[in-house]
Design a protein that fits this description.
alpha/beta; Rossmann fold; 7-stranded parallel beta sheet; 8 helices; globular
Length: 260
Amino acid sequence: MNVKELFELKGNVILVTGGAGVYGQCITEGLAEAGARVIIASRIKENVEVVAKKFRKEGLDVHAMQVDQSDHNSVINLSKMIIDQFGKLNCFVNNAVSRPMKGYYSPIEQFAASMEVNATGMMDIVREMGELIAKNQQGGSIINISSMMGMYGPDYSNYKGTKMASNLPPDYFFHNAGLINLTRYLAKHFSGMNIRVNCISPGGLHNNQPTRFLKNYTEKVPLRRMANQDDIKGLVVLLASRAGEYINGENILMDGGLNA
């Protein structure tokens, strides 16, 4: 098969949660540019509707739906809407995240609120969307978006000389680490069903951070920069397409060599 065909996503229906976020928009754009019909879902539908309209003006097939990942009934309703409107699901990009904790000493109730979305809710939506993909006889792909923070502890030297908060929240490290190993579990769970489950753990994304932070961070990166908005697009398309159909159960660190 021609390599261009291997990366082609025409005819695929793909769900991206957290599609209004910075990485979510990059992911959505890349999948839609490869020909997929992309559904972006968020707790606040107005946010994803704005993003979907922007992409549709660019000729991309992007649609907005609402889901509250902490509410099982909302997850079930999303599943029904996908089938009613599109008839199938080929791929799920698990990208939604909630960040109620602001630091180590945040109220413990905020840790519990984080787990309701980032652990329990995340497992709920992965399981439901996995069931939809399993009903598609072609099989498909689940792509979890974690973070290098799920693999390594914090590097507080990045914040020296800045006013950025260096008291990083522990829940973010906790649930991203769990997501990486859950990826391996799910790859084995779906054995024989032609469903691949992989994880991407990005490093820092350039988002107008203070100059001193950028200097501190990029001096440690062999490529001497943070990730830009195109860096994740090709990797997501690879894992969603036939080009990546023998990659399964992997966590791919995308950090420019920072942790090499």
